[in-house]
Prior knowledge:
Blueprint: H1 7-10, E1 16-18, H2 25-32, E2 43-47, E3 53-54, E4 60-61, E5 68-75, H3 87-90, H4 93-107, E6 112-115, E7 119-122, E8 130-139, E9 146-153, H5 179-199, H6 209-216, E10 223-227, E11 233-241, E12 247-251, E13 254-258, E14 262-267
Parallel strand pairs: 1-2
Antiparallel strand pairs: 2-5, 3-4, 5-9, 6-7, 7-8, 8-9, 10-11, 10-14, 11-12, 12-13
The structure holds biotin.
Amino acid sequence: MTAPAFPLSRALVPAFEWLDEAGSTNDELVARSADIQKWPDLSVLVTDNQTNGRGRLGRTWVAPAGKTLAISVLLRPRTAAGEPLGPDALGWLPLLAGLAMTRAVRSLGVDATLKWPNDVLAADASPRPGKLCGVLSELLPDGAGVVIGAGLNLTITEDELPAETASSLSLAGVAAPDPDATLAAYLRELTELYRAPLEADGDPARSGLRDAVVSACGTLGRVVRVELPSGETLTGTATDIDETGRLVVESGSGTVAVAAGDVTHLRH
Length: 268
Ligand code: BTN
């Protein structure tokens, strides 16, 4: 793609830049974030050729050039009174982003579900079930906000998929996903969902964000295997998302609230 205009997406945010190539759009946006005038809240950086993408839990994010979008959004959330949000409220922003992408993908006609904490999956009944999008949220150096990175698989074909568990919008049934319309759907959902927690001083329950994430989250009610950052594995039924965004898992040995980990859906 050569510097496309992205008119629908540009119209939704205060700053928007397309990069023909980037190592990691998250790194690029964190580097730009020091210039607050030029890169305010809800600034966006995008490429379809990310060469050194990073994933959650220290992994790499691999994406063939021209077939995915790497999207980074800068969020500097402030309450209605102008106060920065605290760390607990910032912790909900990656879940909010996963929910926004789930809704955007559903608006294209894909039966999509949110896998805790923020993967977007084409559901089991779709033509090619699997991961369509992953989200990586990183704190700004000044701690007053985050960069939310989303890698969205648009037109990756079966033999180009980076993992057995991956999918793409075209494999999931969207004949020719339009990059601008798809990105605009995400930004529209994100900006809409972002407003309520700010008005509620970042409180995910009072703003309705927690309920909205719970209702889109296909992990709840399923038997899951969670690989914890410690290397331990937990198997049990995912029953809830608590007030700090942790996944509540009930297993034979009790109830555990998981803050970070890699979840596999086993069965209903
Ligand atoms: C994951 O599922 O592990 C998260 C993947 C996040 C990838 C996105 S692409 C845009 C942004 N830039 C990065 O380097 N990573 C994120």
